[in-house]
Design a protein that fits this description.
The protein has 14 helices and 26 strands. With 538 residues, the protein is an alpha/beta fold.
Length: 538
């Protein structure tokens, strides 16, 4: 009897959130490729991959989990600060890489695992890319600060040769990392040196086709210093005739820098920061370039303890990713390094990242890859558009098939930060369900490990114990905090409780019931979680 009373109290106190699904695709953005990638700090790339003869099986397993859900692996950008500290090995004794590192210190997260001050790379450095899943697209960074066009050409040649005849792909070269932070470089000087390096690569007439370039990689785009997309283009970047049409991507970097987990998760703060990039996105589109965040993350300097390495970070990441996609950002590369706190996972053992786990392991951010893989899975491009929720802490996005306009999924993010104590509940109702979803369903919306019936919508839930937790997360009831990286436990699909349009709608007005959509669906939710409503599998 007590349980019945408590349940009644929870239901009465639940915050009701009504989401009306549109009859036609609303304002939305096209997503043609997997939009979330790994940016890997260049100094330790071979460790993530493993040497050509012995792949890092943990990395391979975790990325295969994504392939199994989306059909394609996440793209990889190899670069970062050490991109401009990497030189070709002076002799053939260095097959992979040799690096010089400053002393480690626990004075800050960035000093605990500092970047190399110097990296010498040999041919096996780029050959390590072969260890990634088939279909992986690589963007390789090239040292611009060295002002050595001949070395740029040779790096490009080695990278090209390393992927020929393999399952991975060379997508682009990025010449220089954050040139707006070089100190005494002007935009004109940057353009001159960038063009020299790019022309050296193009004029080499390598037998692998024309290269593609990813431009800019600015840390803090500034119109005043001309380190902005329009300013750099006006300064002459990629202007020579031989480079026309080869520069296709405009990349800039962004870290949110929130020092509290509640601020990191805040929808309004995320929105405000992304709005600052609207002029850059527009400038890229005007120039015929695809705008991407070539490096991004929660807090720069390798992440902040209690912010970047806790469960709330993945709630932020899902909201941030979908907000960015609806603004025209085509791809986001989240930065990773050896033992950094904002990593998707640690590819090696003995990382002091506050988790106290001795072996290779995932961090909360890894779940972003799983959520995005399943939410956007489709044989072709999809469109993503925001849906109105009427609740400041709740965001929702629809995912439609670009070729048929069919509603495939709804992604729902609750950004209210739960830490401990009573967890606030939410009652979500979805009106105007697609006609195919109007059949009968499990009226209780209870979990089920069986396949949903034809036309029966279902929910997969990203559960976090609390936003300050470092572990205990599950996606669709399964844990990936296993020693192998494979899913543990049975998958849990929660059936959406559906009321057909011809019946009594659950909290839906008469006019809505008469719309061209189907019925109304309902599901219970909680603070600090992500739900994905499925109308069809990938």
């Amino acid at each position: 009897m007590v349980w019945h009373v408590l349940l009644l109290v929870l239901v009465v106190q639940a915050t009701v959130v009504k989401i009306t699904l549109p009859h036609v695709v609303p304002s939305s953005q096209l997503v043609s490729t997997f939009p979330v990638g790994l940016s890997i700090e260049q100094d330790h790339f071979p460790i993530w991959a493993g040497p050509p003869s012995a792949q890092n099986t943990y990395t391979q397993t975790l990325l295969k989990n994504v392939v199994d859900r989306s059909g394609v692996p996440p793209p990889v950008r190899v670069g970062g600060t050490t991109e401009d500290r990497t030189w070709l090995a002076p002799n053939t004794s260095i097959l992979s890489s040799a690096a010089v590192f400053p002393p480690s210190s626990n004075a800050s997260t960035s000093r605990l695992y500092p970047e190399a001050t110097l990296v010498y790379a040999g041919p096996e450095f780029w050959e390590s890319a072969r260890n990634f899943p088939n279909g992986t697209e690589f963007t390789f960074g090239i040292n611009l600060r060295a002002q050595d066009p001949v070395m740029a050409r040779e790096v490009a040649r080695m990278a090209w040769e390393s992927v020929q005849g393999t399952g991975v792909k060379l997508r682009a070269f990025e010449i220089g990392n954050e040139p707006d932070m070089y100190g005494n470089w002007s935009a004109t000087f940057y353009a001159s040196n960038w063009n020299a390096a790019a022309l050296s690569i193009v004029n080499a007439s390598l037998p692998y086709g024309q290269p593609t370039f990813q431009l800019f990689a600015f840390a803090n785009p500034s119109a005043r210093a001309n380190f902005s997309i329009s300013g750099a283009l006006n300064a002459g970047v990629a202007a020579p005739e031989r480079l026309r049409g080869l520069a296709r991507i405009a990349s800039e970097h962004h870290y949110q820098w929130s020092t509290k987990i509640a601020d990191l998760m805040s929808k309004s703060i995320i929105s405000s920061q992304l709005d600052q990039f609207s002029p850059e996105i527009s400038a890229a589109q005007k120039a015929g370039l695809q705008f991407e965040f070539g490096e991004t993350g929660s807090v720069g300097g390798h992440g902040a303890p209690g912010v970047s390495n806790v469960a709330g970070s993945v709630i932020w990441a899902v909201s941030y990713t979908f907000q960015a996609l609806t603004r025209g950002v085509k791809r986001l590369y989240f930065h990773n390094g050896l033992c950094y706190r904002y990593n998707f996972f640690q590819p090696v053992s003995s990382c002091a990242d506050d988790t106290h786990l001795s072996g290779a392991h995932i961090l909360p951010m890894y779940h972003l890859l799983l959520v995005v893989a399943e939410a956007l899975s489709y044989p072709g491009p999809v469109r993503v558009g925001e849906l109105q929720t009427g609740a400041g802490e709740v965001s929702a996005w629809g995912v439609w098939a670009a070729d048929t306009d069919q509603l495939l999924r709804v992604v729902l993010v609750n950004s209210a930060p739960y830490t401990s104590g009573t967890r606030a509940s939410y009652a979500y109702t979805f009106s105007n369900l697609p006609p195919s979803a109007s059949g009968s369903s499990n009226s209780s919306g209870s979990p089920s490990s069986s396949e949903p019936a034809l036309g029966q919508p279902w929910i997969r839930r990203l559960f976090v114990p609390g936003v300050e937790s470092m572990g205990g997360l599950t996606w669709a009831g399964q844990s990936y905090e296993t020693t192998s990286g494979k899913a543990g436990g049975k998958r849990v699909d929660e059936l959406l409780a559906v009321t057909p349009a011809s019946g009594a709608g659950a909290g839906v007005g008469e006019d809505e019931e008469r719309g061209s959509g189907g019925g109304t669906g309902s599901i219970q939710g909680w603070e600090s979680e992500v739900l994905v409503l499925f109308f069809r599998e990938g």
